Description:
By secondary structure, the protein is an alpha/beta fold. Helix content is 35%, strand content 22%. The longest helix is centred in the C-terminal third of the chain and has 16 residues, at 173-188. The structure holds adenosine-5'-triphosphate and magnesium ion (MG).
Amino acid sequence: MTASGAVLETRALVAGYLPEVDILHGVEVRVAEGEIVTIVGPNGAGKSTLVRSICGLLPPRSGSVLYRGEDISRAKAHAIVRKGVGYVPQLDNVFVSMTVEENLELGAIARPGTQLQERLEMIYGLFPRLAERRRQRAGTLSGGERQMLAMARTLVPEPDVLVLDEPSSGLAPTLVAAVFERIAAINRTGVTILMVEQNARRALAMSHRGYVLDLGCNRFEGEGRELLEDPKVIELYLGRDPRGVGGRRAPRGHEAGA
Ligand SMILES: Nc1ncnc2c1ncn2[C@@H]1O[C@H](COP(=O)(O)OP(=O)(O)OP(=O)(O)O)[C@@H](O)[C@H]1O
Ligand SMILES: [Mg+2]
């Protein structure tokens, strides 16, 4: 893949929160049109920091973020959404006191001109459980349903790219599978996906390509399956635990199959 073919790309990205403490040290990731790309790495590696920088929530100190070749490193978050990059944060991603449909309606505000009714129909087709619960408050949804709602709301303004920070976080294994299955379905509608995941094995198994980030630096990159089979990646980041990545020296586990 050529750099120019990338929908989303970071070049030598440096970012951080506190003065003089950089968290990202020149991170480079590329996402091509139609791909699912997953970023994995231990806790504190800088994965959320990276996606927050990409989405305009944490301006980079140096380096750049390119969207279809355009430098968006200095663009505000709302402007980036309008360009077509949707972001689903790791936590607190729905309004609990509002109904499912009200949450979805809010999604339309992000991009003026959104054909709300058409989008709702499309989204309810993709998430039938949300259609059934459209009048229910988001606070009454299960964890998996909330995650579906957060993704659905971000889809309302018709993004070209969906950036997901740990979509399976805190979910029971059966719900994890359901969320990943919906992500694949979203991708099949033509939406490019960049996601961060702790559930590394499963996520890499469904990804075209992946990156391993550690201590704010690129460590490995490759096709999803290539990374899953790389002995160094397994030793350092996946462990034997099929759920992978959280513990670097994970105890011997039972391969559950991705
Ligand atoms: N608002 C903040 N202010 C200061 N430091 C922060 C802030 N947010 C994150 N950090 C620090 O930045 C580093 C990277 O954090 P980040 O949340 O990007 O990691 P992560 O890879 O997403 O981890 P996790 O897997 O636990 O979600 C950590 O050392 C963290 O303590
Ligand atoms: Mg994180």
